[in-house]
Specification:
single chain, about 625 residues, alpha+beta, Four Helix Bundle (Hemerythrin (Met), subunit A), Beta-Lactamase, five-stranded antiparallel sheet, five-stranded mixed sheet, 17 helices, about 60% helix
Length: about 625
């Protein structure tokens, strides 16, 4: 086999032809294996069929033997039926008839089997003996049922026929047993032979397949070795090396493809080197913007970058305001100034709509942007670069030059980089500050949350500034929530938060402490100042509720300041105790820590309430 495979070393054969040859040889081997397996399985099938046939015939023989014994028993029972009732004798007669019918059926079934000649010969003899036995039985049984004594004369002939049939059945049983044993042995031998043939054929196929695959692998490796060596050299940086293949098979096509890849790689590397030289500006810009932590710092970096692109090209960055409907100038060229584009909204700009930089060589051209025409300086050239962040338009970078002399391709590339990096950094800074605000702001009221309030107190303590704390709690808030629904409760919290903000000075802070509880941090103030602020909040709240959009509610206040303790935990405890005292005193009042005497009247600032709630009912609800 190896000699044959070596003789097939045809270097001009294509890989497809080699694969076709391998497939043909494997198919031939598969056909041989299939024929061998079919013959072995056919022998096994014939042996199993013969065994099944003889086994089935043997079962009919056993059934006939059993029925024969039952029939003899019925005749003997008929002979002894003199003392039996008429019904019992009728049952014996029916049993005799049924067993005789079954006996004939089993004998007829045996005649239809294609049995070996010796079994057929025995079957013929048994059938003759069975006919004699049945004739004697059918003559003796009815007579025995009518006249047992008269039937005694027929019994010797009946017994002789039965004994002759017993001997014949025994010979038939022995013959069946011998044939079943032989058929079982033949089936086992056929199965073992089939397994041997299948294993031999499988091993032969495996050996042939392995040799064929080894030959194919060796021949393909030999053909690909030169192409591989060139590919390895190219991967190591020798981009000038090429395959010198001239064949038109798969190997030749692969060699030419590698040559083309090397050519394209040379071109790409050349462009990348040129881009790397040009992108030194981009790298510096990215690094500079990474150090800008605010929009103002980013604007200063962008202005310096505009000057690096060109010292005399007017350039400006227009960004959308908070409504995203209007563009405003964020920064401009520090020396050349701004070109003065009057575009009003982001999507009024062609570059933003297209999502790509747009260059206009002459503002008077038919397809030039209409906003470039009619400028005091006359016709101009311009480039507009969209500024976006994560697919959302932020604004446009606009630069202009003399008509007919648009920015160079290098300047356009740098302006594109400037616009892209400006959008990325400004968008990131805005997203960061927005995330910070959300992390320190209560989503329902818009006030700072508890963490932000604690941070404010730590800052005041670190600076050594005096301040007062006012804890505020909405009175009967649960009653309001339960009776009017959570939407009314949320609206009350928002109204109270707005009232707090309107009542504070610059530098003071109102925060949501949790649930219906709020905290006021009043810098440079004492407890008395805190009570004045609380009274002012009560008054503004009552005025705000005159509109009647929700049921009237009030708030109670507990006040402490840093003269009582510099520690936040202690101040909170004191303010909370004062708030509890305000609740005890009837609510809708402000209490300074340590100044409330149970039973003493609380001085309240008069407040006009449009509808005073029924405090007794609400108190019971709490």
């Amino acid at each position: 086999m190896s000699t044959v495979l070596n003789a097939l070393r045809l270097p001009r054969w294509s890989v497809g032809a080699r694969l076709l040859l391998i497939n043909g040889l494997l198919m031939a081997a598969l056909v041989v294996v299939t024929v061998i397996a079919w013959r072995a399985l056919d022998d096994q099938s014939r042996a199993m069929t013969e065994l099944a046939l003889i086994s089935k015939a043997a079962r009919y023989h056993q059934d006939a033997d059993t029925v024969h014994a039952n029939l003899r028993a019925d005749v003997n029972a008929a002979l002894a039926s003199g003392t039996l009732s008429a019904d019992e004798r009728s049952g014996i007669a029916a049993s005799v008839a049924e067993n005789a019918r079954d006996f004939r059926r089993d004998l007829l079934a045996l005649e239809h089997f294609e049995l070996p000649p010796d079994l057929v010969e025995i079957e013929t003899k048994v059938h003759t003996l069975a006919d004699t036995f049945l004739a004697q039985a059918m003559a003796t049984a009815p007579l025995a049922l009518r006249d047992p004594k008269a039937a005694e004369a027929l019994m010797p002939a009946f017994r002789e026929a039965g004994e002759a049939l017993d001997a014949g059945m025994l010979r038939q049983t022995a013959a069946f047993t011998a044939h079943i044993t032989q058929a079982t042995a033949d089936a086992a031998n056929a199965e073992a032979s089939a397994k041997r043939w299948l294993m031999s054929a499988g091993a032969l196929t495996g050996v042939v397949g392995t040799m064929l695959v080894a030959w194919l692998s060796r021949s393909i490796r030999r053909s690909l070795r030169r192409v591989r060596d060139v590919a390895v050299s190219i991967s190591e940086g020798n981009l000038g090396l090429r395959n010198d293949v001239v064949s038109h098979d798969e190997v030749g096509e692969l060699g030419r493809a590698i040559n083309a890849m090397a050519d394209r790689l040379n071109e790409v590397i050349g462009r990348l080197r040129a881009d790397a030289d040009r992108d030194a500006f981009g790298t510096q810009l990215v690094e500079a913007l990474e150090m800008a932590d605010s929009e103002e710092e980013a604007y200063r970096v962008l202005a310096r970058a505009m000057k690096l692109i060109s010292t005399d090209m007017p350039t400006e960055l227009l960004l959308a305001d908070s409504s995203r409907a209007h563009l405003e100038r964020a920064t401009q060229h520090p020396d050349a100034g701004a070109p003065g584009c009057d575009v009003e909204s982001p999507f009024s700009c062609m570059a933003v709509r297209r999502g790509n930089p747009v260059v206009f060589a002459d503002s008077e051209a038919l397809n030039a942007c209409s906003r470039l025409r009619g400028r005091p300086c006359g016709a101009i050239s311009a480039v507009c670069v969209p500024v976006s962040f994560m697919g959302r338009a932020l604004g446009v970078l606009h630069a202009s030059g003399p008509a007919g002399k648009p920015p160079t391709s290098r300047q356009v590339a740098q302006l594109t980089t400037l616009g892209m990096q400006a959008g990325a950094r400004i968008g990131t800074v805005r997203a960061f500050h927005s995330t910070q605000r959300r992390a320190t702001t209560d989503s329902l009221t818009g006030l700072p949350n508890r963490g932000r309030a604690e941070e404010q107190v730590r800052g005041l303590n670190a600076e050594g500034k005096a301040f007062s704390l006012v804890l505020a709690d909405l009175d009967h808030f649960k009653r309001l929530n339960d009776s009017r629904g959570h939407e009314a409760g949320d609206q009350a919290l928002r109204i109270f938060a707005e009232t707090l903000q309107l009542s504070l000075r610059d530098g003071d802070m109102a925060a949501r402490w949790g649930g219906e509880e709020f905290i006021l941090i009043l810098a440079r103030s004492g407890a008395v100042d805190g009570r004045e602020v609380a009274d002012r909040v009560r008054a503004k709240l009552a005025e705000r509720l005159l509109a009647g959009s929700i049921p009237t509610f009030t708030a109670s206040f507990g006040i402490a300041d840093t003269t009582m303790s510099p520690r936040l935990e202690e101040l909170l405890r004191l303010a909370d105790e004062a708030l509890y005292c305000a609740k005890e005193a009837g609510r809708d009042c402000a209490v300074i820590a340590g100044q409330y005497v149970p039973g003493a009247p609380i001085t309240r600032r008069p407040v006009e309430h449009p509808a005073a709630p029924d405090l007794s009912l609400i108190a019971r609800a709490d």
